[in-house]
Prior knowledge:
The structure is a homodimer.
Chain A (H helix, E strand, L loop, with lengths): L8 H14 L2 E7 L5 E10 L4 E6 L3 H7 L3 E8 L2 E12 L6 H10 L10 E14 L9 E4 L2 E2 L2
Amino acid sequence: xxxxxxxxxxxxxxxxxxxxxxxxxxxxxxxxANGEAYxxxxxxxxxxxxxxxxxxxxxxTGRNLAARGRVRFAIGETRDVIIxxxxxxxxxxxxxxxxxxxxxxxxxxxxxxxxxxxxxxRVTPRRIQAWREVNELTGRLxxxxxxxxx
Amino acid sequence: xxxxxxxxxxxxxxxxxxxxxxxxxxxxxxxxANGEAYxxxxxxxxxxxxxxxxxxxxxxTGRNLAARGRVRFAIGETRDVIIxxxxxxxxxxxxxxxxxxxxxxxxxxxxxxxxxxxxxxRVTPRRIQAWREVNELTGRLxxxxxxxxx
Lengths: 150, 150
C-alpha cells in the first residue's frame, strides 16, 4: 500500500481544527471504579476552545466520566488519528449552563428533552496528537499542557 | 439526514464477521493502575474465533493491557459501530506461539523484528454489540457470554 508523505505539523494542526469544527463523533475512553476500561461513541460540539459532549447521566459512560476530571478520546479514523486529552467539567440537567446546552442542541439534538436525564461534559484540550501512518509518528504532538506547539 | 432502516440481527452478524475478516484496525481502550483511561489504534488479525493484536511491550497500552485479563475495543466508524469485549491472553517475544506470531506477520507485519520488543494479545470475544444509528440500538447485542445470539 502506498503511503502519502508526512504532513507538516502546521498542516496537521489545520486538519485537526477542521475536524474539530466539522466532525460530530468521538470514540471516548472511560474506566469504572475497578479500572475496567470502556469505549463508546459520543457526539460533540467544538466551540473553538472546548468540546461539549453529552450522554445519559445514569449510563455506564456517564457515571465513569462524571467520576473523573480528565478524559481521552479519539476523532477520525484509525489511519487518520487525532487523540485528545483534556480536563473535564460535568454538568447535570440542574447545573448545565443554558448556553452550553443550547450550543449542543443547535448542532446535534436537545438532550434536555431526552427521556433519560443527560449529563453534559465540557472538555478543555490539554494534549493533542495527530498522525496518519507510521511516517507521521514523529511530530504527532500538536498541543502540550494546553498550548499549541505549532 | 436520512437514516437507513435498521438491519436484522442476522445481517448485523454477517456484516460484523465480514468486518472482523477484512478490517485491520481497532480502537482499543485500556486503563492504567490509577484508573486513567486511554485509547489507541491497534491492528488485528481475526482467525475466525480469536483476535490477535500487538503493540510495543513497554508502551503505555502494552503495559495497561498486559496487567488485565479483559479488553474492550471498537471496530469501524462511529456511525457503524462494533464493540467487542473479550478475555485476553498476553504473550511476550519469549512466550508467543510461533503460529500466532506467524499469522500476525502474514496479514500485517512481523512484529518480532521490530526495534522494540512487542507484546502479543490473543482476545476471545465474549460480548459483541453492533449498531449504526439510534434505530439500531434495539437488538444491538449479538454475542453474550461468548455465544452468538443469532
